[in-house]
Amino acid sequence: MRTIKVGLLGFGTVGTGVVKNVQRNATVIQKRLGYGLELVRIADLDVETDRGVELGAGVLTTDVEDVISHPEIDIVVELIGGYEPAKSFILKAIANGKHIVTANKALMAVHGDEIIAAANRQGVSVMFEAAVGGGIPILSSIKENLCSNEFNSVLGVLNGTSNFILTKMTEDGSDFAPVLREAQELGYAEADPTFDIEGIDAAHKIALLSAICFGTSVDFGQVYTEGISQISAADIRFAAQMGYKIKLLAIGKNHGDQIEVRVHPTMLPGTYQLAGINGVFNAVRLIGDFVGPTLLYGSGAGMDATASAVMGDVMAIARDLNSGAQLRVPIMGYSADQVQSLPIKAMSEIVSYYYLRFTTLDRPGVLAEIAGCLGRYGISIQSMLQPEGHEGDSVPIVLMTHEAKEEDVSNALAEIGQLDSILQPTCLIRVEHDLD
């Protein structure tokens, strides 16, 4: 048996967490592996900042080549983030025969096919558990423990920032802007929160989850992505009156010859499991043909949770290396020659239930006008809520539709928007409640 040697690219928050994990849990890591694991090099542009950890002489370097070309390093951990130079560093490390562990969801969602193809040619592993759900062991569960199942859906609350904001809006009755400021003050949201609040972070994750669940390549450019910045306190209040909660939901569905991959605000019944995921926590719900519905829940981000996921991948590769069972589990969970190219269903073809909030003039006949437009496109009304009270001459009308095609709803709303009784653009939120 030999000591498995590891190199680290990036010594920020997660990189520091990895070092702390290796040092603090050295004994348990040794006991679980049965042999040594050594952190040989760490490359970062900043070698002056005190991260609160002690490193041996020569471990910290500004030269990436000291990691990706080091003759003794077996596993390179990439924690730089972004597309470049992370992609180039990973591809060069793969060319040098290094196994890869990364937490880089954006890179894997957009350029994963290229990286995985290079790794397969070179006969090395690429693992990225930390890229999806932080400390939740979702990817390994799909690829190993649940690998005999055919999955028909994967749903997730996958972004802690958005989930914190929606939870606070629900609990406090606040609007979006002040809660976003609070999230930033508490450190739950970045100074530029665009990736989180506009759904891009969750879209990266559901692209990866869908690919692994359904055995297909996912073109990230085709993933429909809509954020939470337009959700109002009124919508959350009306949803509660109708028995629903609003979540930024990441959705993957397998229809056999095509898939759905989308992220948008979604109303869920208040009794539904994912509706009860609050604060900064994440959860993923799978439905397998044999296992049935399964929910995995935990910390979706943060130094310790993400470092835990990174080290899980490092130790999985280390075990394979020491046993001579390299690439025991295919990178995407399916044999490389069995990965399909299933088309993503166009958003216009999606069928859903819809919550619609209209802001209208307070005059007789408006509801009949709206219902008539909806009826012309085959959209039937399931329920209606017309709250008491109004501001000035405007009143809200809230409708819940039966199942309808997205294209029909869009066309109907375009026609309704031309009515002189409509004062503001209509708020549309999709509804999911027949998921078993």
Describe the protein's architecture and organization:
With 436 residues, this protein is α/β, with parallel strands linked by helices. It has 3 domains: 4-134 and 303-338, 3-Layer(aba) Sandwich (Rossmann fold); 139-299, Dihydrodipicolinate Reductase, domain 2 (2-Layer Sandwich), CATH 3.30.360; 350-431, 2-Layer Sandwich (Alpha-Beta Plaits). The chain is 35% helix and 24% strand. Strands 7, 8, 9, 10, 11, 12, 13, 14, 15, 16 and 17 form an 11-stranded mixed β-sheet that branches. A 6-stranded parallel β-sheet has the order 3-2-1-4-5-6, sandwiched between helices. Helix 5 (105-122) links the parallel strand 5 and strand 6. The mean pLDDT is 93.
Question: What would you say about this model in short?
Answer:
This protein has 436 residues and is α/β, with parallel strands linked by helices. It is built from 14 helices and 17 strands. It has 3 domains: 4-134 and 303-338, NAD(P)-binding Rossmann-like Domain (Rossmann fold), CATH 3.40.50.720; 139-299, Dihydrodipicolinate Reductase, domain 2 (2-Layer Sandwich), CATH 3.30.360.10; 350-431, 2-Layer Sandwich (Alpha-Beta Plaits), CATH 3.30.70.
